[in-house]
Amino acid sequence: MDPLPWWKTATGYQIYPRSFCDSDSDGDGIGDIPGIISKLDHLADLGIGFIWLSPVYASPMIDNGYDISDYRDIAPAFGTLDDMDRLIAEAKARGIEIVMDLVVNHCSSEHPWFNAALASPEAPEHDYFVWREPRAGTTAPPNDLLSAFGGPAWTYVPSLGKYYLHQFASAQPDLNWENPALRAEIYAMMNWWFDRGIGGFRMDVIDLIGKDVGAGIMAEGPNLHAYLQEMHGETLAGRDVVTVGESWSVTPQTGILYCGEDRGELSMVFQFEHVKAGWHETFGKWKPLPFDLPTFKKAFFDWQIALADDGWNSLFLTNHDLPRQVSKYGDDGEHRVRSAKLLATVLHFMKGTPFIYQGEEIGMTNSRFERLEQFRDVELFGHHEAVMAQGHSLEEFISGANANGRDNARTPMQWTAGENAGFTSGTPWIEVNPNYTEINVDADRSDPDGLIAFYRHLVHLRQTLPILTQGTFRPFSAEHEQIFAYARGFDGQRLSVVANVSSEPVSYDIPEGLACRGACLVHNFEPRAELTGRIELAPWEAVAILSE
After folding, report:
1. What gap in Å lies between CA 202 and CA 34, rounded to an integer?
2. Is 246 a catalytic residue?
3. Total structural domains in the chain?
4. With 80 as the cut, is the pLDDT of residue 283 above it?
């Protein structure tokens, strides 16, 4: 059997640079690349194989770097290209690859391409963007398409008499992937970064690049996979790198199109079915639904089955756009540590590449802001007025933002119990969660039974047990409202995972096919040597047993 690609046995770690670590050299309250370098030993100790680095490119920071004004330079707040080269080298020295964020559905309105496009419709760069005339006889937008950040997805340029498309903020004009010259620019930029030594790309909202505006198809458009295959041929083919495509529209049925082994596209895809399952049909994330375990499990089970024999899953619960997982899916009060271990257990033992989001390894929680001015997210402010106009009170809106808003994941990393959680010597760009005096890296690392030790063990198991990377997957008790259970199988071995995802004890009859006796790989309550017959599980108890 051929050896697996390195990224199938590796564990990824996402860094949101603005909130990770502010170096002592400037203390401006914004995390930076030298700060990341200073913490690489923390990640090496965890056993991390690669870092997904949210954007550090030059940017006016309307969307905290997801609005890029120069793809070949670094934002001064984060450092310099020399700093970036040093990060790549220092990470490699510790066996860690750097995976950069590829944001090419859109760029910044301050990018030289857009400046040239505004200056003249005759400029080649004008066709790097998506333009439409107003509706006949009016100056109204060409259609009623809305931005993901609230308001119309079209902005009028009086000097040109035309609108440009932006599926996000007006400062993030969509790029026109139908233009081969634009695609060539992007591929050249990607190769430039590969030549600097990066280990791959995470591709932001990549499902949107194939849009057919005329047909009203914005996601997974007719040319999407042709573009991804062309990209692969021009940049990825022959390179030992990893690629992860973000898609809010992908389903278990279409996932294989992105990452099938014979497709020549991507390594894997980020899907969000388990996230969207908790959103209100009308009000979206701003009015979260009660957690429903069967629906949550179905999303993961469906994807495990869909990519069982081809393709590859990405495994995550938290990222820079999502609430903290222990607050969203666990118990961030009395059972914070135990529920954090449970969530890690059920995620890391599935088939795929797991991703740890900064702070997850110490069980960081949502912040629960009380005033609108405490928030920083452009998406939140873009939706505020519209949600209020639908009849919500300010208190309801803030409650929804505290449950599902993106700022939850963006409060500073909690390193110590000292001032500003050891994140900065200055004033943090966003408030530190007040619980940093109890929840921080120093405190957790000093506990041999803490979360860091637990995650270190999970990462090591993935590197050493073929059943985790190559084993079959069989779900159990899909409709059970408390139990998350599945079995993995490989080379005559069975790995059984059973977890009580609730704050109440539960009795559970172990089904045939899940029953197992052997070595207890992980537990977060009391170790067990077997899962047989009728068992009693304590609140938030999780156990994984590998058959002898």
Report:
1. 22
2. yes
3. 3
4. no
Give the range of the structural domain holding residue 123, as residue numbers without chain letter.
112-165
Contact criterion met (CB below 8 Å) for 540 and 342: yes
State the pLDDT confidence band at 1, using cuts at 50, 70 and 90: low
The residue among 247, 279, 312 that closes a domain is 312
pLDDT digits (tens, 9 = 90+) for 454-506: 999 999 999 999 999 999 999 999 999 999 999 999 999 999 999 999 999 99
Q: Which of 261, 288, 312 is the last residue of a domain?
A: 312
214 and 159, same structural domain?
no
DSSP 213: G
Say which of 246, 302, 360, 377 is annotated catalytic: 246
The CATH number for 120's domain is: 3.90.400.10
Among residues 204, 207, 361, 377, which one is catalytic? 204
- Is residue 90 pLDDT above 70, yes or no? yes
Mean of all residue pLDDT scores within the chain: 95
Is the pLDDT confidence value at 292 over 80? yes
204 is catalytic: yes
**Nearest residue to 130 (alpha-carbon basis) of 145, 139, 138:** 145
Q: Which long-range contacts (CB under 8 A, 24 or more apart) does 252-259 make?
A: 252/302, 252/303, 252/305, 252/306, 252/307, 253/306, 254/220, 255/303, 255/306, 255/307, 255/311, 256/306, 256/307, 256/310, 256/311, 257/225, 258/225, 258/228, 258/311, 259/307, 259/311, 259/312
Asked if residue 421 lies in contact with residue 412, where contact means CB atoms within 8 angstroms, the answer is yes
pLDDT in tens, 204-244: 999 999 999 999 999 999 999 999 999 999 999 999 999 99
